[in-house]
Specification:
Length: about 400
């Protein structure tokens, strides 16, 4: 049994049939095959004659269509590939594969499914695999790239409009692939997918915003600024006005860079000794930093648990504030001693000012210095008795204030 013909159109077109690329003479014959390979339904002869030979008399146009179909049938040993029942023309689906048609069918299904899944939610593995296979069907950056079509305005319009349609689905799928990797903490892979998307659509707002946000979160401010400059050059070259978001991002990155330069407290500095090994553990911590949540690091005393955390944060400048405590025997006799250490180290006066006086009075039970900083605080009443439930709510409130200024690690 003969293998199906393979028609590649997502890039420079090529046709394969049990051999190296198959040469098809005459532009209109090749283009007719490309057009038919992209159709999800049979096409009428009337539409084909209007599309390819619209300037010819109908009788002449139909004759040209018959001749082109006959040439295609003579090229392929598969007799059933070209189907011409009555007034309809199509390629038999069991006898050919077309990357453009495969991509369109898969992309339609994927986009419908993905619409019901929140953007920053990791995808089921099977769905992620299907998404990855679909976006990698493209061998180039343009549909029917480097192809000279027959002289027909309608045919050229089809090439441009269908190409834009496929390209739009490709950029949205690549953006979703990046969101999946980000949700799993794989920021470098997410950046790779976004850069790939920008190869297809360099001026796409969604892809550019997503890339800049990841570069900012990773602390790669110089790369983000370089990307903004490249975008400025591209818009200028295309003679398009600069979108407002470029200036917004310039200001945002300038502020972020200044904050990093200010060396916001990270707790005790890491050891000056060079870091060696533990790449898997470090990568896992990086993913956890971007994903959020709780990570438990277990090991014997002196194994390097604390150094591992400091090393992780030193490679992620956007994670600039660390609230750290050192466990000690005093924790057994002094309630909340560890939290008192953390609050005194990591919470600044401007953070306390964001709380109400009642909450400040509550925290003054632990931090007596708050009454010196805020002398008009009300005396703690019976309702502010230091109960564990209120302690956790109060901690949540002050930590929410701190993390609004900068990402936070405990």
């Amino acid at each position: 049994m003969n293998r199906p013909a393979r028609i590649h159109l997502l890039g420079t077109p090529a046709v394969y049939f049990e051999s190296p690329p198959l040469g098809i003479p005459r532009r209109e014959v090749r283009t007719l095959l490309y057009f038919l390979a992209c159709q999800r339904e049979p096409v009428s002869r009337a539409r084909l004659t209007l599309l390819f030979w619209g300037d010819y008399p109908e009788e002449t146009a139909r004759k040209r269509l018959r001749e082109s179909l006959a040439r295609l049938k003579s090229i392929f040993p598969l007799r059933d590939l070209i189907q011409t029942p009555g007034e309809e023309v199509f390629l038999h689906p069991q006898h050919f594969f077309c990357d453009a048609l495969e991509f369109e069918n898969n992309a339609r299904t994927l986009l419908t499914t993905l619409a019901s899944i929140p953007l920053m939610t990791p995808l089921p593995e099977l769905l992620a695999t299907q998404l990855r296979r679909t976006v990698t069907l493209w061998s180039g950056r343009r549909f029917l790239a480097d192809v000279r079509l027959p002289d027909s305005p309608d045919l050229e319009w089809w090439r441009l409009s269908h190409g834009d349609f496929l390209l739009g689905m490709q950029t949205r799928l690549l953006e979703r692939m990046a969101a999946h990797e980000t949700a799993q903490g794989n920021v470098e892979q997410a950046i790779e997918w976004l850069n790939r998307g920008l190869e297809f659509a360099p001026l796409d707002d969604g892809l550019n915003h997503a890339l800049l946000e990841l570069l900012e979160r990773r602390g790669w401010f110089s790369q983000a600024q370089s990307h903004l400059e490249e975008m400025t050059r591209r818009f200028t070259a295309e003679e398009q006005p600069l979108p407002p978001w470029i200036e917004v991002w310039r200001g945002r990155l300038r502020v972020a860079s200044e904050r990093t330069s200010a060396s916001v407290s990270r707790g005790e500095p890491p050891s000056p000794l060079p870091w060696v090994g533990r790449k898997e553990e470090l990568d896992a911590l990086h993913r956890a930093c971007f994903r959020g949540g709780v990570v438990l690091i277990v090991g014997e005393e002196g194994a390097g648990k604390t150094r591992l955390v400091y090393q992780c944060l030193s490679q992620a400048p956007s994670m600039r504030r660390l609230l750290s405590v050192t466990a000690s025997p005093q924790d057994r006799t002094l309630p909340y001693h560890s939290w008192v250490q953390a609050l005194r180290k990591g919470v600044l006066p401007q953070h306390w000012q964001a709380l109400s006086k009642n909450w400040l009075a509550f925290f003054s039970l632990l931090l007596g210095e708050l009454r010196e900083a805020f002398p008009d605080l009300p005396p703690p009443g019976s309702e502010t008795a230091f109960l564990p439930t209120m302690a956790f709510e109060g901690l949540q409130r002050i930590l929410n204030v701190v993390k609004q200024e900068t990402p936070l690690a405990l």
